[in-house]
Design brief:
The chain has one domain. Helices cover about 85% and strands about 0% of the residues. It contains 17 helices and no strands. Helix 1 packs antiparallel against helix 12 and helix 15 packs parallel to helix 17.
Length: about 450
């Protein structure tokens, strides 16, 4: 269905709602990870899980292009009616993921060392974080491969399968968290082992959900899979998205690392509050992912009306989501913080910064939704360039505000970066529409 009439609110919701539900379980998992170690009543384990998870996420999300690039390229091939390329893209994504995960395992020691050299935490936090990462790194191939699997499913609007996959992984992870940490007393290592088991089992389920790929010979049509022009196009798109992801992760890593310099209690408080941002991001991503699939199909079909309608309808629903989240954070933020830790000093510190959590969804709406539009259109060069500009604005804001306002200045700089991303991408949008019918598109559909 590539005509504008077929794109309704109902279709957007059919794609987005399972993604909203699936992605909402991810920050819930992060909250449980933080909450179970928070029951130990100490700041160091909370900070260790936070820093360890952020460092690993930074390494993994250098390959986050695989989720985004796969969605954009597959949705465009699907919109153009090119089924063999849809299957070949799945194989390319898996090969990249398994290779990347293996490299991370082999380089784990220097990578961990580099993470702590950037901004060291206390000795106790570093020791606990190293134990945590040393377990979780062994599921790197599965974790990265799941980006490709998820991107492929989203591009084909098979979001119920994505929901099933996330429920399986996160449900298992949460159950094992409770058992390993609260039941067996394994602490930080228990949290890591739970994630390791959940990620490998999730990869197995993901392959099963995509089993129709293996029922056709196109997935192993090696001449197509390794076609030089298609590989080059995929590399260009994914390379730009990778650079964009590295820059985005640099913002969040620097945020927690600077907070670590304020002491263990501010670090733990910021880690708890980051779960609010994760909830916002993943809830909005449901509609941003819908934009990716629908915009990609519009690009493949060469239909500017469908492109514009996709952006408008998904943005409309994204607005309602952020209004609800901002209100919820204002009303129930303190209670959420109290559920996540029993450490009174961390609770008191986190409550000070709750107003920033209420503002974040509203200020980040345009950035998150336009990310989906530009990913679906595979306008990766624009995303890379505007992310670079936004990162520079964040750095300048932090440099000016942190010495003056300390942790308040750090939060303000982060929110300024959200606004910068939205404004710069909006400035590029007219050129995106103008490119839809332009001859000589860089995207390969045949």
């Amino acid at each position: 269905m590539t005509d504008a009439a077929a794109l309704s609110h109902r279709r957007v919701l059919k794609i987005a709602v399972p993604i909203v539900l699936a992605n909402a379980t991810v920050p819930i998992l992060g909250a449980v990870d933080t909450g179970v170690v928070g029951q130990m009543g100490l700041a160091a384990p909370i900070g260790a899980v936070g820093i360890g998870a952020v460092i690993l996420s930074a390494f993994y999300w250098m390959f986050g292009f695989l989720r985004m690039g796969t969605t954009g390229l597959v949705s465009q091939a699907h919109g153009a009616g090119n089924r063999p390329e849809v299957m070949a893209l799945f194989t390319r994504a898996l090969l990249i993921a398994l290779s990347a995960g293996t490299v991370l395992i082999l380089l784990q020691r220097p990578l961990f060392t580099a993470g702590f050299l950037v901004s060291p935490a206390s000795e106790q936090v570093e020791q606990l974080a190293t134990s945590y990462m040393g377990i979780r790194i062994w599921s790197a191939p599965a974790t990265i491969a799941l980006y490709g699997v998820t991107g492929w499913l989203i591009a084909l609007e098979r979001t119920r399968s994505v929901l099933l996959l996330q429920l399986w992984m996160n449900g298992m992870n949460i159950g094992l968290d409770l058992w390993f940490v609260l039941g067996l007393g394994w602490g930080v290592e228990g949290v890591a082992l739970a994630t390791f088991i959940a990620e490998w089992s999730g990869f197995g389920l993901g392959l099963y959900l995509c089993r129709d790929v293996f029922a056709t010979p196109a997935w192993r049509a090696w001449a197509r899979v390794f076609d030089r022009a298609r590989l080059r196009n995929m590399a260009l798109v994914n390379g730009d998205i990778m650079l964009r992801s590295v820059l985005l992760q640099a913002i969040f890593i620097s945020f927690l690392f600077v907070a670590a310099g304020f002491g263990d209690v501010p670090l733990a408080a910021n880690q708890i509050l980051m779960q609010f941002l994760q909830i916002t991001a993943f809830a909005l991503d449901g509609f941003a992912f819908a934009a990716e699939a629908l915009v990609g199909q519009a690009m493949g079909a060469g239909t500017v009306v469908l492109l514009r309608r996709s952006a408008i309808l998904t943005g409309f629903w994204g607005l309602w989501v952020v209004l609800a989240l901002s209100l919820a954070f204002l009303l129930f933020g303190a209670q959420i913080v109290d559920l996540m830790t029993t450490a009174e000093d961390v609770r008191a510190e986190a409550r000070i910064y709750l107003p920033y959590m209420a503002a974040a969804p509203l200020l980040g709406l345009v950035a998150w939704m336009l990310d989906g539009v530009f990913i679906g259109a595979t306008r990766s060069r624009d995303m890379r360039n505007m992310m670079l500009l936004s990162t520079m604005i964040y750095g300048a804001s932090a440099w000016l505000l942190v010495p003056w306002l300390q942790n308040h200045g750090l939060w303000l700089a982060l929110l300024i970066s959200f606004v910068a991303r939205g404004v710069t991408l909006a400035w590029c949008y007219p050129a995106l529409e103008a490119s839809v019918m332009r001859p000589g598109s860089e995207n390969l559909q045949n």
